[in-house]
Amino acid sequence: MTTQGIHIENLRKRYGSGDTAVDALKSVNMDVTPGEVVGLIGPSGSGKSTLLKCLGAVTEPSGGKMVLGDQVIYDEGWQVQDLRALRRDRIGFVFQAPYLISFLDATDNVALPSMLAGTPNAEARARALELLHALDVAHRAKALPMQLSGGEQQRVSIARGLVNRPPVILADEPTAPLDSERALAVIRILNEMARKFETAIIVVTHDEKIIPTFKRLYHIRDGITHEEVGEGRSFQER
Amino acid sequence: MINLAGRDILHAWGKFVFTGIGLGLLIGVTLVMAGVYRGMVDDAKVLLENSGADLWVVQQDTIGPYAESSSLYDDLWRSIRSMPGVAQAANVTYLTMQVQHETHDIRAMVTGISVGGPGTPGWPPSLVAGRQITRSHYEAVADLSSGLRLGDRLRIRRNDYTVVGLTRRMVSSNGDPMIFIPLRDAQEAQFLKDNDAILQQRRRTAENPAFQHPDVLQHIFALQSNNPFVNAILVRLEPTSDVDRVANSIHRAQRLTVYTRLQMQRILVGKLIATSARQIGMFLVILATVSAAIVAFIIYTLTLGKIREIAVLKLIGTRNRTISAMIMQQAMTLGTIGFVVGKISATFSAPFFPKHVLLEPQDSIAGFGAVLLICLLSSLIAIHAALQVDPAEAIGG
Q: I want to staple B170 with a disulfide (CB 3.0 to 4.6 A). Which of A52, B143, B304, B350 is the partner?
């Protein structure tokens, strides 16, 4: 077990009860160290989204244990009272579509989670600009989401996920709408950010072109995870 | 923390402004309707104020002369004038009718005023042009809202009158302009029969066996051709007189009904314009309901269009109260834009209404409060929808 990053132990999730009960997650076990980016793949209905929702503290698991960073958040029951604050301060989200707030410019979209955490506006915006610089999109800082390209929107979305320096980032199909070049660029950025901010990142993906880039990969099938370790393209070949 | 509502409004300002204009026109109509009611009340007060009377003496057990017909002998004023505490007493007649002017007619309240001068109860207190009536017949003073001008000729029944003076804000409680003419002419106009009716009446009287003496018959004809009645006697009191005491003594001594100004105001507002007031009240309720439905629909639609964004906001830790405040502020902004547009449109359109529209500042303040309250309540549906959004919706699958 790691003391930082993500540790998931025998996580289970059952929907419904009795004859109609469905076990979306039967036994999920994962470890992601700080600074590491791991992939999570699996067919449709395998439980990927359910796992993300449990990790994202928006769906309560039925059993097991989850540790984010140095905090046990679930152990046969929620261990934190304010899940909203947990999501705000300890988890960054990157979505398949960027889901930026349409009426805020790139800077404020990035700064918003920090402002919600109580950081003064000026400081939050300075931090946002720093991240936009790091993600090479600072020149679009004043642009509204609709004025940004798909790749730029995704980079702004990554910056938003990082702004509160969370120990964990959950990325749900972050490269799905992008072409190969941009998809690989996003994965490169996630790797750089993971190393730079010591963040543990889980990337849920179907995207064949980025799968080879993960050093570690978790398969989820019928609600059970299987870990595989590979290096670059050799992993894809297995 | 940035103002999310403000940013959204600035981003989609066209949607808010145009919706606000539409809502504003509706609010403008609401304000005008309230103004029409205020105008009617004000007209009633002005009518009483301009009459210069402290007491209205009318036929016993009637609520005349404005709300009901009232008939008094025209010599009663002398005995009332001689009572303690009375400074002036004057006969007056009121008749709402169509007055012919050139090729069209004007609806007006023809008021017969007794011989006297400015300051006599019933006389117009001031003129904006021309002079008061100085001759016993065929002169008139008209209100400006009648459209008449100095020197215009108008026809009342069978007689022509020349407009010699003009007044302003002298209208009945229905908003009809007042036209003042000498009392004798007004009495004749009020009870004047056509020639055929007079001949018929004389024939019937002549055939009555009881009136067969020629002298008696002539006297009866003379009586029938005169009208010795007026609608009311307007009384002005000595400055030191007690209104209720004098009213009481006239009532007991003359066996007539007497109203003070306050009582007459209650009759006008409470009885004469009560139906109109209820009608306007119904319109106000309908307009308020329609406004509420529009605001609720618009805010709800705007909120539904942001469901995914609201899910993201919730996922990244936005408090429910921040989201609620955002929706509420947007509803309030819509209401404020609507009110400003409504107030401006009501102010500029009021003079074009045929009736007097009085836009009172306190009505505007109350209207603004009502608009904000309606917007607040209307936003609750959208807030409920937003709070039902599951942050998990932002995560695919």
A: B143
User: The domain that contains A222 carries what CATH number?
Assistant: 3.40.50.300
pLDDT score of A236 more than 70: no
If phi > 0 it is left, if psi is from -120 to 50 it is alpha, else beta; for residue B140 that is: beta
- ipTM, two decimals, is 0.82
B154 lies in the same domain as B187: yes
User: Residue A130's domain spans which residues?
Assistant: 6-237
- Residue A47 pLDDT: 87
Model pLDDT, residue B108: 94
Instruction: Inform me whether the C-beta atom of residue A5 falls under 8 Å from chain B C-beta atoms.
Output: no
Nearest CA in chain A to B316: A88
Same domain, B363 and B387: yes
- A1 part of a folded domain: no
In this prediction, residue A230 has a pLDDT band, given cuts at 50, 70 and 90, of low
Domain count, chain A: 1
H or E stretch including B21? helix B13-51
Report how far residue B17's alpha carbon sits from residue B363's, in angstroms, rounded to the nearest whole number.
Answer: 24
B308 has a chain A CB within 8 A of its CB: yes
pLDDT < 70 positions in chain B: 396-397
Same domain as B323, residue B280: yes
Choose among A84, A103, A172: nearest Cβ to B317. Answer: A84
- Do A191 and A135 form a contact (C-beta atoms < 8 A)? no
Q: Which residues does chain A have within 8 Å of residue B312's beta carbon, measured at their own beta carbons?
A: 93, 95, 99, 101
Q: Is B108 helix (H, G, I), strand (E, B) or coil?
A: strand
* Cβ contact, residue pair A84, B397, below 8 Å: no
Cβ burial of A159 (10 Å; 0-12, 13-18, 19+) is: buried
Domain match, B245 and B137 both: yes
For A87-143, the pLDDT digits (tens) are: 988 899 888 888 899 999 999 999 999 999 889 999 999 999 998 988 889 999 999
